[in-house]
Design a protein that fits this description.
- By secondary structure, the chain is an alpha/beta fold.
- 26% of the residues lie in helices and 26% in strands.
- It has 3 domains: 2-130, Immunoglobulin-like, CATH 2.60.40; 133-227, Sandwich (Immunoglobulin-like), CATH 2.60.40; 244-603, TIM Barrel (Alpha-Beta Barrel), CATH 3.20.20.80.
- The strands form 7 sheets. Strands 21-22-23-24-25-28-29-30 form an 8-stranded parallel barrel, surrounded by 5 helices. Strands 4, 6, 7, 8, 10 and 11 form a 6-stranded mixed β-sheet that branches.
- A hairpin with a 2-residue loop joins strand 10 (111-119) and strand 11 (122-131).
């Protein structure tokens, strides 16, 4: 696309102009909003950020059908000279249009932009920001983690030339005191700069942001973690008391592969016997589920004598982002080679689990991550209840999901993925029975969902009362959770068609209201599915919320755990073992947070409150 006096990225996709007298698209007729979004839009009206060198995809949805698109833009509040410009682009019969720029953003484009589309007399504007590029080299498992004693290399490109650099930073969300600090550093004549920082020290452990301010360009920020070491938790060699609580209640360890053993060691040290952990294959180079299982950190985690039950949130190689198609694309599984490869990956994982652990009494449940979120732009509740989030998701869906047109199609692909996974587990189990490896170990298959009510009954919203620091459900949920509703859900439209040993509920929709709501929703799930094999794969409370106190977090968690155990869930898992002073039982400096004393007491058979842990 050309603008007078300023050259910016051209669109690769040019659709033929089609003049019409404002034909209405189907979603326009349904009253859905006409939106223009970018591929990084999370919510309509909220600015997305791009760095110099990035490409942008623009998408229009719910506009008049078969209508020409006219473009205007501003940079830093001033018109670029592009005013109702026409480039031969038109919406399709569904009022949709999307295209990716053919060239990346340049230094000349730094600043705060608006882009306006006029279609059939309807006008919509999207804001976004172009910043210099700030990167920090990666050191652990290809992710931005650093260990004490290591150093980081910072690089800036696409910035104003020969310009001073000012630095600000936060640690665990709090300012470090470095605020617009100048260290006599300047970009070069090409707008580039790099330097190696000093070694990280023990007092630096935690979650960091570093922000560079360079001339008149918008600030650019990078985030990363500093951890004590690659083996911060010593192996736990003993065993602790086994009781109903410690057998059924666990913690979720969602961390990088080389640190997974440390989470297991920490849960074992606390006295727990159940662990929910991320089980995601490496993608560069491409890994396999068996390769991950037999890796040294994973073997140390699973071989811990104090841990008996594991829920594995498994991502196989079809979920790698470098694939041409996303794993929820149903056309991916039309290729029998792909479908059979998924089956084989889970069959081989299952047979290896039986071979390695028969006779140990260990239990493994292979699950997925929050199925509803997987197909609703990582925000199924927001999709159901927030029109602006839904509009952005719908407009961006083919971009975010690599050509999958809509959530309903993605849900059908998600179902096929689960069917392949389940077949693999069943094949592996049959092999174990036939070859004498099935005794003293159990490998099961679960499907995780995270919405009970809102997708079928979007009027059921949760609001937060700042005065009482409590949430409330603003409706009476239908007793029949899967009556004909507005949107499809994993619980209603996938699980009955796939089959399972367990279902896993990531239960925030219920636990954010109350423990009583959780009990009610578990009853509704049991009534629909006809099974009590419902585990709570994840729940928790943010200790960084303005209303949260350690006592508040512990009491709400205590209420949920007691309600779930009384109902009869086989397992329930707290989110999360490690993070930066938010949900974590520990922070990355291994300092105990609100829930650490609680679990230490209750895993040992004690009650709550107990002593100073109240």
């Amino acid at each position: 696309m050309r603008r007078i006096g300023l050259t910016v990225p051209l669109f690769l996709l040019i659709l033929g102009a089609g003049w019409a007298a404002r034909p209405a698209s189907a979603c326009e007729k349904a009253g859905q909003p006409f939106v223009l979004v970018l591929d990084r839009t999370v919510q309509v009206g909220v600015s997305s950020t791009y760095a110099v060198g990035d490409l942008t995809t623009y998408s229009i949805n719910c506009a008049p059908a078969n209508s020409p698109i006219y473009w205007s833009s501003t940079l830093n509040g001033v018109s670029t000279g592009e005013v109702n410009a026409f480039y031969g682009q038109s919406t399709d019969a569904n009022g949709h249009w999307s295209a990716t720029a053919s060239s990346p953003w340049q230094v000349a484009h730094l600043g705060r932009w608006t882009k306006t589309a006029n279609v059939g007399g309807l006008v919509v504007t999207v804001p976004f920001v172009i910043t210099p590029r700030l990167t920090v080299d990666n050191s652990v498992d290809g992710a931005p983690w650093y260990t004490v004693g290591s150093s980081s290399t910072y690089r800036i490109s696409g910035a104003p030339a020969n310009t001073p650099i000012y630095w600000s930073s936060t640690l665990n969300g709090q300012p470090t005191g470095e605020n617009h600090a100048f260290y006599n550093q300047f970009t070069d004549a090409n707008g580039n700069w790099s330097a190696v920082a000093g070694a990280w020290q023990p007092q630096h452990v935690g979650g960091w942001t570093k922000t560079a301010s360079i001339g008149s360009a918008p600030d650019t920020t990078v985030s990363f973690q500093v951890i004590p070491s690659l083996d911060p938790v010593p192996p736990f060699a003993g065993t602790t008391v086994f009781n109903d609580f410690s057998n059924r209640v666990g913690v979720y360890d969602w961390t990088t592969a080389s640190l997974i053993d440390d989470g297991a060691d920490q849960v074992a040290t606390l006295g727990g016997h159940a662990l929910h952990l991320l089980f995601s294959v490496g993608c560069n180079p491409q890994g396999s589920l068996v390769g991950l299982l037999t890796s040294a950190p994973m073997q140390e985690a699973i071989n811990n004598a104090n841990l008996k039950s594991f829920v594995l949130t498994a991502f196989d190689k079809t979920a790698c982002g470098n694939n041409a198609k996303i794993y929820v694309d149903p056309t991916l599984y039309n290729d029998p080679n792909v479908y059979n490869a998924v089956v084989a990956d889970y069959r081989d994982l299952t047979t290896n689990l039986y071979q390695l652990y028969h006779g140990t009494g260990k239990k493994f449940i292979l699950s997925n991550w929050e199925g509803d979120n997987a197909v609703y732009c990582s925000g199924a509740y927001a999709y159901a209840t927030d029109a602006t989030f839904r509009a952005a998701c719908d407009a961006n869906f083919p971009v975010l999901y690599k050509g999958v047109p809509d959530p309903a199609t993605a849900l059908s692909g998600f179902k096929r993925w689960l069917q392949a996974r389940r077949q693999g587990v069943q094949d592996g189990r049959s092999w174990a029975v036939a070859n004498g490896f099935a005794s003293g170990v159990d490998v099961s298959f679960a499907i995780e969902f995270n919405i009970v009510s809102s997708l079928k009954q979007p009027s059921c919203t949760v609001s937060f009362n700042n005065a009482t620091c409590l949430s409330q459900l603003n409706c009476t949920p239908n007793a029949n959770i899967c009556q004909a509703g507005t949107y499809q859900s994993v619980l209603c439209d996938v699980i009955p068609q796939v089959g399972y040993d367990y279902v896993s509920y990531s239960a925030y929709e219920s636990t954010n209201v109350s423990s009583a709501q959780l009990t009610s929703d578990l009853n509704r799930v049991r009534n629909f599915l006809g099974t009590s094999n419902v585990l709570i794969g994840e729940f928790g409370y943010n200790q960084a919320d303005s209303c949260a106190t350690p006592q508040n977090v512990r009491q709400r968690t205590h209420n949920v755990l007691n309600a779930a155990l009384s109902w009869g869930v086989p397992y329930i898992f707290q989110w999360v073992l490690f993070d930066n002073n938010q949900f974590g039982v520990y922070n990355y400096a291994l300092q105990p947070q609100a829930m650490a004393c609680y679990y230490q007491n209750r895993f040992a058979g004690g009650g709550y409150p107990a002593g100073s842990c109240n």
